[in-house]
Each structure stands twice: as C-alpha cells, then as structure tokens.
Amino acid sequence: MINDFSEPAGYYQYNVITSNETSYQHSIPDLMKTPRAGGAYLGVGPEQNFTYIAALQPKIAFIFDIRREMMLEHLMYKSVFEMSQNRVEFVANLFSRKAPAQLGPDSSVGAIFQAFERVPADPVLAEQNANLVVDRLKTRHHFTLNAEDERGIRRLYGTFSREGVQFFNSSFLSPGYAYLMTVTDGRGKNWSYLASKENYERIRLMQQQNLIVPLVGDFAGTKAIRAVGQYLKDHGATVHVFYISNVEDYIRARTRYVGNIASLPTDASSVLLRWYIGGHTELNPIADFLRSQRVVDSR
Known about the structure:
Distance between the termini: 38 Å
Number of helices: 13
Oligomer: single chain
Largest sheet: 6 strands, mixed
C-alpha cells in the first residue's frame, strides 16, 4: 500500500517531528459520544494519531503526510512498537535510554516520564536500536527502503535519542514528549496512547497486524486519498473520522481537495476533525462540509 498508494513528496516549511497541538485531546470526549469503533480512521502528522486511534478503535488507519520523512517516522514507530512489549520498554526504545528499575507495566504515565527525565541517553544503545529498527523493516517486513530512506530513519531515531523526553527543540513548537503524553482533555482525563497499558496494547496490536498504514500524500493530490477511498469501498468500510489538523490552511487546489473528501465512503457519523492555531478543535460532519462546499462552488 505504501508503494502503490503514495504520491511524490511535497514541501512543508516546518520541521515537525512531534505534535505541537497541546489541546489535541479536547475533541475526544465529543468524538466518543457517537459510537465509532470499527470502520476506518484517516489522519495526518505524527504521534497524536495514535491517541485518536486508541480512543476510537478503528479496524484500520491510514496516515497521510506530504512529507516522506513523516512516512519514515511512522515506519520507525512501527518497529519500536513491535520491539516493545509494554510502555516502559517503548519509551526506553524510542529514546534510547535504559529503563529505570522502579518502573513496571502498571506504572502511571506520569511516573514513567518523571523517571525517564533523569536518565541520560545511551549512545551505544541508540546505535544498536537504530540497527534493529532498520533491520526489522527491511528483513521482516521487506520494505523497499533506499539509502536515503535508511539514512532518514536513522537520523530521526537519533533525534529522539538526543532530545529526550522533556524537551524537543528539533520539532517546530513542540512542548516535549512528556507533556504531550501527560496532558488531559481539559476535563481531567488523559487519553494519550501511553496513558494506560490498554491504550498502548491497542496500538501495538494494530502495528503488529499492519493496520496502521503511513502514506506520502497531498490532501489536494491526485492519488493517495482516492486510492485509500477505493480500497475502503472495495472492502465495505466507512471513514468514521478524518483528522485533518490545520492542513486546510495550506491547501491551494481547493476543488481537488473537496473532490478527494467526496470520494471517501462515509455515513452520517463521519466527521472531519480540525485543529486551529490557538488551540481550538472542531468536529464537522463530512456531509455538512460537502454541502457547504457545493453552495460555495455554485456561487
């Protein structure tokens, strides 16, 4: 699917490795008011997708991004999930740090990140794990990574090791990984994919089953979104949530973008999930979005 559905990479002016959306969980309570388990989830960007997926529990997820580097980052994540039986191992493997002895599978997410904040990076472990990550992708999954892809994955993995869990200055406006994993929905609940072992296990199982598919795709492109839409139609699946962040701010070929959304199999519960600069999140039924666009386009 990555090879067949992806488009050529495009340009994005910011270096985004972790989310910078500190309010990304605020929409989840409203999302959860309508049963949406099963079906398909579509999204964009880095790790906040895992939190949405853990909450919504789709059967399959596709993550589009115009940057090839983000597809490579998600492949790196795939390897790290598969290598890590629990959240403590995951954080240790993602950031190339030895797990503190006091942590266990049932430790709270706050305790996990507080403990890892005090652990320095291990350069030897980072090199060993980078080899394991790439080898798993190439030999177990048979991804056709070229030399630049492999260098990109190693570079990304090294960035996580260098930055650590508290700050992430290499990523545009990142508040740091610990913050992103311990923030709440504004009502006191933390939905992050590392907030509980159940959330983590849902994502790990989907990664093991190849059900989180990262693609290189332009929201106003000619291939990726339509290819996924056709695949879902062929399998009788419906898009329940399409997390689009603030990508619409950068779209110029608006008509093609609207056509891509219209090509997806949806129902009355299907929504676009937007995030706005300033921290506001919004749910918009896809049917309402398409009706509004026809009104605008017909003027």
